[in-house]
Amino acid sequence: MSPRAKAKGIGVPQPSQDVPSIKWASLQHGAQSIRASATGAEQAMQPGGYNASATLRMTNPPRCRKDASPFRYKNTILSRMRVPPKNTDDALGPFDRALWRKRRDRAAARFADADFLLTETVERTIERLEDIKRSFPSVAVIGAGNGAMTAALQGRFGIERLFQLDASPVMAQMAAKAVPDAVTLVADEEALPLADASLDLIVAPLTLHWTNDLPGSLIQMRRALKPDGLLMAALFAGSTLQELRTHLTHAEVETTGGLSPRIAPMADLRDLGGLLQRAGLALPVADREVIPVRYANPFRLLTDLRAMGESNVLRDRHKAPLRRDTLARMLELYAGSVDATGNVTATFEIAFLHGWAPAPTQQQPLRPGSAKMRLADALGTDEKPAGEKAG
Questions:
Q1: Average confidence (pLDDT) over 94-115
Q2: What is the pLDDT of residues 14-31, one digit of tens each?
Q3: Three-class SS of residue 27?
Q4: Is the pLDDT confidence value at 286 over 60?
Q5: Average model confidence (pLDDT) for the chain?
Q6: In the beta sheet, which residues pair with residue 320?
Q7: For residues 221-234, b (16+ Cβ closer than 10 Å) or e, as one string?
Q8: Which domains occur in the chain, in start order?
Q9: Which of 30, 332, 346, 388 has its CA at a distance of 20 to 30 angstroms from the CA of residue 52?
Q10: Which secondary-structure segment (H or E) carries 356?
Q11: Distances (CA, A) of 162 to 138, 223, 231
């Protein structure tokens, strides 16, 4: 973990970062201006969602070839954030996506206070990319956040065209200011406006764990990749926030006599690897990194989760705020688990997923029985019949 993250883990407060209103969000891409519809941007913050789309389009769009843009529109860069209203398919998922976007908008103002996990994810993703000896001319970042991932990619890995997308208009504006040379768009992970076979690399840092249809999102990304294109995703999984989950469960049972959904369920690493195969990605790899973060006070963990935009958006959550006696009991139980340094620990498990769009040039498994050399010859040993002891 970087020194910055270690210092952050103790919960040292930092000044908040002001983010201007996005009633009219003007996102810059060189001399081109991307302007958000005021009506659409305001509707995007409504908890019920809307039927129309929040549209960002580039004025005076550049003329381009049919295959020059990674988006589904010719001669213009146009992104529509399709947000399903209530009582549609979106309502069938475990997460309230409209509320998630609203929480993400709110978190942008203080995101700099709790961006240490995204910083760690960016560093570890870049390390993995450095091990791949090839270039990626056209790249998109899904879930741009504060633009840290896009900034880390800029000018490296043979990138010629760089795009960043975020479901939050406020986050998209912040990312555009951080990386003005990238094309920045508002787009939902569950309805990506990406054209088929248009990108060499897609990176999705720490947003996919909030999707209601993760397999569907992975399939959309696979389709957007050119043959032999790479998808790299990072999301919270497994043992993330296991301490908070345990102490909050005990506190709520003691004070209310029951339980309500408070922390989102986390996918298992093996299941995530299976989803890569289900999405049609070749050579899938799923690995994890566990990051323990130490806090002097467990209440600071709750503050950081709010600043990250990672607070509870489960659809079946208890709509009333957490009772004071439940919160006090949870903090008491959590504070009782201090380590030798006098701090409490919060565990974050990040799953890193890698998969390639299928291509005939990739390595393929040989047909069973097609070997041209015996294993015994390769090892320089004598082959023994089954059941015979080696001499």
A1: 93
A2: 333 333 322 222 233 322
A3: strand
A4: yes
A5: 79
A6: none
A7: bbbbbbebbbbbbb
A8: 22-240+267-290+352-359 (3.40.50.150)
A9: 30
A10: strand 344-356
A11: 6, 18, 15
Q: What is the spatial distance between Cα 183 and Cα 192, in angstroms, rounded to a whole number?
A: 15
CA distance 82 to 100: 14
Q: What is the DSSP letter of 248?
A: H
CB–CB of 34/57 below 8 Å? yes
Residue entry with tokens 């993330």: 240
pLDDT value for 116:
95
Query: Would you say 23 and 41 are in contact if contact means Cβ atoms under 8 Å apart?
Result: yes
Provide mean pLDDT across the span 220-242. Answer: 96
The pTM assigned to this predicted structure is: 0.75
User: Environment class of residue 381 by beta-carbon count within 10 Å: exposed (0-12), middle (13-18) or buried (19+)?
Assistant: exposed
The 3-class secondary structure across 118-132, one letter per residue, is: HHHHHHHHHHHHHCC
Report pLDDT for 371. 78
The type of residue at 220 is: Q
The closest alpha carbon to 241, from 314, 305, 329, belongs to 305
| 290 vs 6: CA distance, rounded Å | 14
Measured over the CA atoms of residue 67, residue 193, residue 106 and residue 115, the dihedral's sign is negative
- Predicted local confidence at residue 247, as pLDDT: 95
Residue appearing with tokens 């979106």 = 90
Neighbouring-strand partners of residue 352: 234, 287
Please state, for a pLDDT cut of 90, what percent of the chain lies above it.
63
